[in-house]
Amino acid sequence: MTQPNTPSPTLRFRDTLVNIRLSADDGNDGIAVLEHRASVGEAPPLHIHRHEDEIFHLLRGKLRFEVGGRSFPLQSGDVALAPKGVAHRFIVESADGAHWVTITRGHDFETMVKAVSRPAASEELPAQTPPSPAEIEALIKACAENGIDIVGPPFTT
User: Alpha helices of the chain — where are they, by DSSP H?
Assistant: First the structure.
């Protein structure tokens, strides 16, 4: 039996708060579990993971999801799969935000999140702000270096 994992310090990944609950380095199979909290309107660009499936387990809130061009809602308790090689994106639709975990097998997503995050100033969700040109450039670079291709815009409200 292994010891329970202590979550990482809270990271600010754009306007999302993230805790790495299990790093891909912690086990033998490279499984990573990241916990996310985000405000209404949070929406990453349409993107493809070249090497990792991405599993989303929505703990609280409502997301609009798109995988492979098919759009569908997710509600608390739902699970969705974004297979590697398939374009996907989402938007947080619930007024009080959303809370979910992502699960991947590999280092790409986790490494990208670490590369563009900084320690969170607090546990309170930050206000939604448009990304600066420098933030967009850093995200595109970190994604490209970690097997993630940005292929389109985010959902819009």
Answer: 108-116, 133-145
